[in-house]
Amino acid sequence: MTLQSLGIIALVVALAVGGFGVHRAGVKSGEARIQAQWDAERLAHAEAVQRAQRDKEAAERDLAIRLQESADAHTVTLDRLRDAESAAGRAQLRLRAAIATAALGAREQSQVAAAGPATDDRAAAAGELLAACAGELEQMGAAAGGLAAQVIGLQGYARTAYEAAQESPHGND
């Protein structure tokens, strides 16, 4: 072999070694780029999962707040209804007492009429008392009717909120 042949062989070997080095550097660079892309995709996915979890928790908190507000309003309305019912019961007792008083007055008046001249003062007072009781009962009945309508509305709202929570894609987790 000649010197020139050895030079050519050395040149070919040098080019092969250099080409292998360039190829290897390219492979390493590609691997790093693919790894970086994979890591970025995994990070984006993890962030999306965390964001979805935060959104779900916020929606659940909002729903819980709305349901609690509805329950509180329902409790207030029930308390008002109970108070109105108690007031109606007391008014009924007063009305019964007034009727008994009026009936007693009427009996006394009939006895007085049989015995002598009649006085209309007691009968007028009993009539006024009965009219006042009837007016009070009408007012309480109207108030109770209004409160009953509110209860029905609140029950409908609570039912709708409950059904919406059950239909939520995250409601059964």
Question: Brief description of this entry?
Answer:
The chain is mostly helical. It is built from 2 helices and no strands.
Structure description:
This is DUF2514 family protein. The chain is mostly helical. It has two domains: 1-42; 65-173. 92% of the residues lie in helices and 0% in strands. The chain has two helices and no strands.
Looking at this protein, list some descriptive labels.
single chain, mainly alpha
Question: Helix count?
Answer: 2
Shape, principal axes of CA atoms:
rod-shaped
User: How many discrete structural domains?
Assistant: 2
The total of beta strands comes to: 0
- Unreliable spans are none
